[in-house]
Design brief:
This protein has 15 helices and seven strands. The chain is of the alpha/beta class. The chain folds into three domains: 101 residues, no CATH class; 65 residues, no CATH class; 150 residues, Nucleotidyltransferase, domain 5, CATH 3.30.420. Strands 5-4-3-6-7 form a five-stranded mixed β-sheet. The protein has a two-stranded parallel ribbon with strand order 1-2. Helix 1 crosses helix 2, helix 3 runs antiparallel to helix 4 and helix 5 crosses helix 6. It is flat.
């Protein structure tokens, strides 16, 4: 459940008033109001977010080997969390105690040593102190499996409000701010429970206008069983995520390994390069409906892609999910998808929601950089062969389809505005 509370300022007592007599663990960011509250109340423990530690160091990684090394070690913690995600709290605690504890202890020693070597006024010094001054809360996740490594879930829930912050200037009054928080809470709870907010809001307002008893208004809330009829009953195997990415003839690895104390030397291409687009879909079983157009993806290209590549791959009942951009929301796009007895849906505007295509594309690009082909035809062939040899992914809903042997470098039979192209 997501809950928003409006306050007139960011003073520490606002958090104290909101929490009341709460006792337990708070998963928080670095806001000083929580730290002051925990000092006054011994029954409150703070679990700090590793993403906030990482964020400060990531900004320095290009210029600081120390920041790069810390990020590498934090990535080890993230990898352990990926393995235990979805398991019980006790299982997470056991794995963390066995594997993450060593990483955290070594990192603590490393940060303390580096803090003595850097300027106290430098950004790197500030980033290290941010982590060390919160270390008991940063390491709390090791001893308690209920604690998350980071608070990204909360960050995603608050981002729609942050993106919409300027609209809050027109709330009009403190009462308007309170009402805005309530409405935002209802809408966000619809979203996280798979309910269509628009349909829920229409029906709920209609019931209230028709005299729904005031003492049972709680039955209409998004988190109750009554709202179940509005849930989007999506079967994972029917989801088809559509996205696009770029590839180029100058792709090469930017990192490698060498002996300690030696300089790593690698060839790096310079001069003219050819960029090309890749459009593809992703099911639970792997990548589908791939196409490499020779040029930018405009309206004609995308509609031709739908007609000749995507729609033939769709099955009745499929749910096609696209980015929330104007080019995808034209009536012609929806007509083509629905003609295949499928449904078209979009990610929320400015959405932090994860599109699984990104991980699949990331792995594909890693393979392209490793080979480093410098010709357009070679790049297209490499993309196709990578698909045939099963591009690895890192999520269950993006596993590779061993039965889909069509190369990624599928071409349109007649590119818009030009002659047919061979790949």
């Amino acid at each position: 459940m997501v809950a928003y509370v409006y306050a007139t300022d960011r003073k520490g007592e606002r958090a104290e008033a909101h929490l009341g007599d709460f006792a337990g663990i708070l998963q928080v960011d670095g806001y000083g109001g929580y730290t002051a509250l925990a000092k006054r109340r011994q029954l409150i423990q703070l679990a700090f977010c590793w993403s906030h530690v990482r964020r400060k160091l990531y900004e320095l990684a290009d210029k600081s080997p120390v920041a790069t090394e810390v990020l590498r070690r934090i990535a080890m913690l993230y990898a352990i969390e990926d393995e235990v995600r979805g398991t019980s709290a006790e299982q997470r605690r056991a794995v963390r105690a066995e594997r993450a504890c060593v990483v955290v202890d070594d990192l603590h020693v490393y940060l303390e040593a580096r803090l003595r070597q850097v300027s106290a006024k430098s950004k790197l010094g500030d980033a290290i102190r941010y982590a060390l001054t919160r270390w008991p809360g940063q390491s709390l996740f090791i001893d308690d499996g209920r604690v998350a490594l980071y608070s990204n879930t909360i960050e995603r829930s608050i981002r729609p409000l942050a993106l919409n912050r300027k609209n809050a200037l027109f709330a009009g009054s403190d009462e308007g701010g309170d009402n805005w928080a309530v409405i935002a809470m209802l809408i966000e709870n619809c979203k996280i429970t798979g309910i269509d907010p628009h349909a829920w809001l229409i029906e709920t307002l209609a019931k209230l206008a028709s005299g729904h008893p005031a003492n049972t208004v709680g039955q209409l809330m998004p988190w109750t069983a009554v709202a179940g009829e509005h849930r989007l009953h999506l079967e994972p195997e029917r989801l088809v995520f559509i996205d696009e990415t770029w590839t180029a003839t100058n792709m090469t690895r930017g990192h490698g390994r060498c002996r300690k104390g030696e300089r790593l030397r690698m060839d790096f291409p310079h001069g003219h390069r050819k960029n090309t687009k890749l459009v593809a879909g992703l099911r639970m079983t792997g990548m589908v409906a791939p196409m490499v157009p020779d040029g930018p993806i405009n309206r004609d290209w995308f509609e031709a892609y739908l007609d000749q590549v995507l729609v033939p791959e769709l099955r009745p009942g499929d749910v096609v999910i696209m980015d929330n951009i104007a080019g995808h929301k034209r009536a012609a796009v929806k007509e083509r998808i629905e003609a295949a007895s499928a449904t078209l849906r979009f990610l929320p505007p400015n959405s932090p929601d994860f599109n699984p295509n990104e991980k699949a594309f990331s792995r594909l690009k890693a393979m392209l950089r490793k080979v480093g082909d410098r010709t357009v035809s070679g790049l297209w062939d490499l993309i196709g062969s990578s698909s045939q040899t099963n591009v690895p992914t890192t999520s269950n809903h993006a596993a590779t389809n061993r039965n889909d042997r069509r190369p990624l470098s599928t071409s349109l039979s007649t590119p818009p505005g030009g002659a047919p192209r061979d790949t």
